[in-house]
Amino acid sequence: MRSQRGGGFIQVILVLLVAGFVTYMALQMFRRAPLPQISPGNPAHSVMEHVALHLEGLESPSDAAQAEEALRKSRGVASVSIDSDDTAHVTYNPAQTNPDQLIAAVQRAGYRARR
Fold first, then answer.
1. CB atoms within 10 A of CB 46
2. Distance between CA 22 and CA 105 in Å, rounded?
3. What are the two backbone dihedrals, phi and then psi, of residue 49, each rounded to the nearest 5 degrees?
4. What is d(CA 29, CA 21) in angstroms, rounded to the nearest whole number?
5. According to the model, what pLDDT value does residue 26 have?
6. 3-state helix, strand, coil in the chain (%, to 5)
7. 18-38 in b/e burial notation, b at 16+ Cβ within 10 A?
8. pTM exceeding the 0.85 threshold for the entire prediction
9. Diameter of the chain by CA atoms?
């Protein structure tokens, strides 16, 4: 009976040693891996611009949500937030859209917008 308990203990120690060795080797491989090169043409790292649009005609939170959704669906828009003063803060890719197109998107949703 004692020999079985001792055998189980040795197996646990061996499993822990193997797991530690595998973890060590994985970390060594990770350290040797070259860092990914970021090219200037990578769209994830393109230069984004920000514009603040003053929205008019928002009478309820659902109106703000509809205007926000219209902006969010516009091509090239990365993020949109509307503050309590009914100002939409939009981050966008200038290669894909511009403030005039964003204002037009708000107008299509039934609201007014100006810079």
1. 14
2. 54
3. -120, 165
4. 12
5. 79
6. 50, 20, 30
7. eeeeeeeeeeeeeeeeeeeee
8. no
9. 84
